Amino acid sequence: MNKEHGRTAVRSIVGLVGVAVGAMLPLAAAHAAEKVKVGLMLPYTGTYAALGTAITNGFKQYVAEQGGMLAGREVEYFVVDDESNPAKATENANKLVKRDEVDVLVGTVHSGVALAMAKVARDSKTLMIIPNAGADELTGPLCAPNVFRTSFTNWQPAYAMGKVAAERGHKTAVTLTWKYAAGEQAVNGFADAFKGAGGKVLKQLTLPFPGVEFQPYLTEIASLKPDAVYVFFAGGGAVKFVKDYDAAGLKSSIPLYSSGFLTDGTLGAMGGAGEGLLTALQYADGLDVAKDKDFRSAYAASYKMQPDVYAVQGYDAAQLLKSGLDAVKTGKLEQGAMIKAMESATIDSPRGAFTLSKAHNPVQDIYLRKAEGEENKVVGVAAGKLADPARGCRM
Ligand code: BEZ
Question: Would you say the CB of residue 134 lies under 6 angstroms from ligand 1?
Answer without folding.
Answer: yes
